[in-house]
Amino acid sequence: MSNKILVSGIKPTGRLHFGNYFGAMRQNIELANSGEYESYVFLADYHALTSVKNGDELRTQTLEAAASYIACGLDIDKAILFRQSSVPEVTELTWIFNNLVTMPYLMRAHAFKDNEAKNKDVNVGLFDYPVLMASDILMYNADVVPVGADQKQHIEYTRDIAGYYNRAFGVEQFKEPKELIVDGVAVIPGIDGQKMSKSYNNHIELFCSDEDLKKRVMSIVTDSATSEEKKNPDENNIYKIHKLFLNEEGDKSLRAKFENGGYSYKDAKEELLSTIMKWREGKKEKYNELISNPEKIIKILEEGGRKAKARAEVTMKMVRHQVGLQ
Ligand code: TYM
């Protein structure tokens, strides 16, 4: 294993969708499987607690998210796949970092501001979300963090916090990680054209039933152009989702269909549906097999958790000494 380190998390707040997949998971899987990184890939169940208030739901969703990762091809011999909460040290590090950031600084976080603007109650966990995320990343001394564009600010916060800590204690403990945001998949649109998100209910789940998949795809919002009309693919939501699955050649031929006219939205949606069904071939069976054997997933997560915790203990030993707790 090389000493480049990759860290990435996903919140198990619902079933994973194509925004998660194309925005982050695919890159994580490719990089982790390349063997060029020591990869820490986790289900951010502590972060999920900011919104999920049902133990059974969180447990189930965490296992489903792990199964999704494996079904999508994550090689668990090359990546450490684990529950965030298997490393309670991240909450300890969060507490230490909490004393280095101010409230006005955290009030500038997009997630906080968005919730405030919608007059939602912001619990203290949600307010502190960026600090816990910085702990996740710095705990393993990440070089690279593959994420979608919505997480960019969190990685900037992480770099800030690394610097605050190093300066406060006069050490070179934490290095500043880089986000990896891939052009073209930074913001994946949902079926209504807004950013795909569970909270907007505009998402397409990776492994929903075939009927639900069909329903979602057929309800992608379009304008009222007729079948004959030529259409601009770059302004078309069906195209924007479909192209994610295609290589250069496939993309070219799909663009031509939109541009030439004679390609109805019904045809376009049916073709997208068949592309997604093809993408799911093999993966969905693997997912279902894992989900029906939760003990298998639990074992993988426990094993990953032990490895991640061992790494975290090394960091915390130094940190506790630097700050004077030991
Ligand atoms: P979460 O669960 O909201 O999202 C997981 C990943 O999916 C990406 N993503 C998208 N990318 C492009 N377009 C979309 N429509 C879209 N929807 C989701 C997100 O950018 C993210 O990369 N805070 C993180 C979880 C986390 C984490 C970490 C990530 C906790 N600790 C440490 C990296 C490193 C989150 O909310 O993920």
Task: Detail the topology: elements first, then pairings.
Layout: E1 5-10, H1 18-33, E2 38-43, H2 45-48, H3 55-71, E3 79-83, H4 89-98, H5 103-107, H6 110-117, H7 124-127, H8 129-139, E4 144-146, H9 152-169, E5 178-180, H10 210-218, H11 237-242, H12 248-260, H13 265-280, H14 283-291, H15 294-323
Helix pairs in contact: 3-14, 4-8, 4-15, 8-9, 10-13
Bound molecules: tryptophanyl-5'AMP.
Brief rundown of the structure:
The protein has 15 helices and five strands. The protein has 326 residues and is mainly α. Helix 10 runs antiparallel to helix 13.
**What ions, cofactors and ligands are bound?**
tryptophanyl-5'AMP
The structural domain count equals 2
Structural class: mainly alpha
Distance between the first and last residues' Cα = 32 Å
Largest sheet: 3 strands, parallel
CATH-wise, what's the superfamily of the largest domain?
HUPs
How many individual helices? 15
From N to C, what is the helix and strand string?
A: EHEHHEHHHHHEHEHHHHHH
Number of strands: 5
Named CATH architecture of the largest domain: 3-Layer(aba) Sandwich
| Shape category | globular
Which fold does the CATH topology of the largest domain refer to?
A: Rossmann fold
Radius of gyration: 21 Å
